[in-house]
Amino acid sequence: MEYISNLTLSHFRSHKISKLSLDGKPVVVFGKNGTGKTNILEAVSLFSPGRGLRRATAEDITRNPEAIGWKIEGKVKNRISEYEVVISSEKGESRRLFLDGKKASIFKLSQILRIVWLVPSMDRIWIEGSSGRRQFLDRLTLSYFPEHAEISLSYEKAMRERNRLLKEKIHNDHWYNALEIEMAKSAVLIQKARLKTVKYLSEAQKNLTGKFPKAELLLVDPNQIITDEEEALQLLKGSRSSDMMLGRTGVGPHKSDLQAIYEDKLTLAKDCSTGEQKAILISIILANVKSLAKINNISPIVLLDEVSAHLDKDRQAALYNEICDLGVQAWMTGTGPELFSELKNKAQFIEVSTIDGISELSISN
Fold it and tell me: In DSSP terms, which residues pair with 19 in a beta bridge?
């Protein structure tokens, strides 16, 4: 089992100094709105590639009025080792990561620890634009394939440069060819990883029990899903003229979308009720955890912010039972401990309050 055993936040948003000692059980963080509950989950999310669950910049995170920078310190345990992790930023500078006292990349940490999350802004994921669904799918893909982050960055970097050429109406086959070769290579790897992820999730959902709906998951694209590098390259070359008119790249994995169909009702997720949409998301997360344990023998950390929203009592209880059965460190937030009564004696309860705008933590029995 992988989990965070110690966590210290220094000048991180509303937390001037907050320390937690953890034993691997689920973690319930409760308190009034605005006390800094989600800030704790955000800190944990920064142990994975990207800008965390709020997609914030380093400068956004630093506590004001001091604005001296911030630091997250943690101990990560798995089946065989313990690692010291320090992530920090000074005065809005880019994040720095140290693993066991040595400077390291976030991608190295992702080989040790996998993190997935659900936050309230994702409750509308099925009815809003495709960008949020791609981000959700890529976070899940990253849990199976840590290299997915670097491959995606390579694709985006090459695409940004290609888009610059397109906007400036530059005609230079040599430049386009070099960029499109890199994009085609990365695009195929991205799509293959996404397709495998959808397959793993779909297979795991078949074995789910309880009150969470099974969903048929589909990776779709307005053009086509291409898993052959030469085909991807020819598609990019063939789209240059139309892309130049648009001033941007119109084909590739950045146009793909994730769709879900509620199997029992044969209804698209976007047409389901708010509660059903939330339940489908939770079902996917549970499937992710189950399949990771089976395929990679890994237990991801699961972050569930305001998880009880839109769930009835039966589904709340079913979720907590699933989390305990899976044996993962799940971090959950809510306004009061009564929302998590089924987890009494099965989780660590932490109350968050504020004094003069500073978050304070206390262990609750």
Answer: 8
- Among residues 269, 243, 81, the alpha carbon closest in space to that of 162 is found at 243
Please return the burial class of 331, using the count of CB atoms within 10 Å of its CB with bins 0-12, 13-18 and 19+: buried
Q: What percent of the chain has pLDDT over 90?
A: 80
Number of C-beta neighbours around residue 350 at 10 A:
22
Q: Are 154 and 147 in contact (CB under 8 A)?
A: no
Per-residue pLDDT tens digits for 90-125: 877 888 999 999 999 988 898 889 999 999 999 999
Residue range 300-315: mean pLDDT, rounded: 90
Backbone angles phi, psi at 10, to 5 degrees: -120, 120
**Has residue 231 got a pLDDT over 90?**
yes
Query: pTM of the prediction?
Result: 0.91
User: Locate tokens 């053009």: which residue?
Assistant: 223
What residue type is 269 in one-letter code? A
